[in-house]
Write a structure and sequence with these properties.
It contains ten helices and ten strands. It has an eight-stranded parallel barrel with strand order 3-4-5-6-7-8-9-10. The chain has a two-stranded antiparallel ribbon with strand order 1-2. The longest helix is centred in the middle third of the chain and has 15 residues. Helix content is 38%, strand content 14%. By secondary structure, the chain is α/β, with parallel strands linked by helices.
Length: 317
């Protein structure tokens, strides 16, 4: 049975594993996409993540495919009211470009609503921190969507901790809706000093500490499995993660996985959900067997001692 986690200060209880559908409609065909969505739903999953530009960088993609596939699936199943749907604006399609202006937010929200076949978005993210657009304009536009009932919650992605706090301060000062969560690149391996993920932003200790000190604010982790690099021989660990502690941390997570008779990806998910702060992982399977493996992570409970070992692996003696 799917576990749930509270999102923000609201009463929203969302699935502990969020289903990311970035590749659906491009690299994952419609039939397979529907099968994965069905299996996630049948397992109790209700939290689905997409964006207005997924996936423009895959062959033949323009950026509307993922939302369209999800919208068609929800219409066929008649289950929109049971789901918690997240989508994004900011990193837009090539015909629009990066923008969080009022005009862009309003027009892109309308487009997402149409493709999804719904009249509201449960969670609407600022997909990037577009600093050329004033925070006041961005947040005012988001707030107007919330007041109009077109959006129920707002969040951010690829933002630094200080920018999140500044944005939330602007919202509080004006009585506007606040960001309730951040979706950030994060995995078990630590980025090496000076690692660059541009245009993405990796979570760092400042952001983790911010979430610990603000329990009403939740972090979600994208790319936690590094596209299979932890376990696939044909994929290397990205160079940004090859710091001095990488070997020690890989060895430790493999030991914990062996102790549980589990896979490394399952332990990564369990570590995210069992730590402080609790982090909601995004899982983005492209096949049914991958989804089945990932869902088993919810049955794993790491002990405080195991969490401590995983957290401190690779630390200086």
């Amino acid at each position: 049975m799917m576990r749930t986690v509270q999102l923000g200060r609201s009463d929203n209880q969302v699935s502990a594993l969020c289903l990311g559908i970035l590749q659906m409609g491009t690299r994952v065909d419609r039939e397979t996409s529907s099968a994965v969505l069905d299996a996630y739903y049948e397992a109790g999953g209700r939290f689905i993540d997409t964006a207005n530009n997924y996936s423009k960088w895959h062959e033949g993609g323009v950026g509307t495919e993922s939302e369209t596939v999800l919208g068609e699936w929800m219409k066929e199943r008649g289950n929109r009211h049971e789901l918690f749907i997240a989508t994004k604006v900011g990193f837009n399609r090539d015909d629009i470009g990066p923008s969080l202006s009022r005009e862009t937010i309003e027009s892109e929200a309308a487009g997402s609503l149409k493709r999804l076949g719904t009249d509201y978005i449960d969670l609407y993210y600022a997909h990037a921190d577009i600093r050329s657009d004033p925070l006041e304009e961005t947040l005012s536009a988001f707030n107007d969507l919330v007041r109009a009932g077109k959006v129920r919650n707002i969040g951010c992605s690829n933002h630094r901790a200080w920018r999140i706090e500044r944005a939330r301060g602007v919202s509080r000062a004006n009585g506007w809706a606040e960001y309730c969560c951040v979706q950030q690149r994060f995995t078990y391996l630590r980025p090496r000093a000076g690692a660059d993920f541009a245009p993405q932003v990796s979570a760092n200790e400042d952001l983790l500490d911010y979430c610990r000190e603000n329990p009403g604010f939740r972090m979600l982790a994208y790319s936690p499995l590094l596209n299979g690099a932890y376990v696939r021989e044909d994929r290397s660990i990205p160079s940004q993660y090859l710091g001095v502690d990488a070997e020690s941390r890989v060895a430790e997570i493999r030991r914990v996985a062996d102790d549980h008779g589990a896979t490394v990806p399952q332990i990564i998910y369990a570590w995210l959900l069992g730590g402080n702060p609790v982090i909601i992982p995004l899982t983005a399977p492209t096949r049914l067997d991958q989804l089945a493996e990932n869902l088993k992570a919810l049955d794993i409970e790491l002990s405080p001692e195991e969490l401590e070992r995983l957290d401190t692996a690779g630390n200086p003696a």
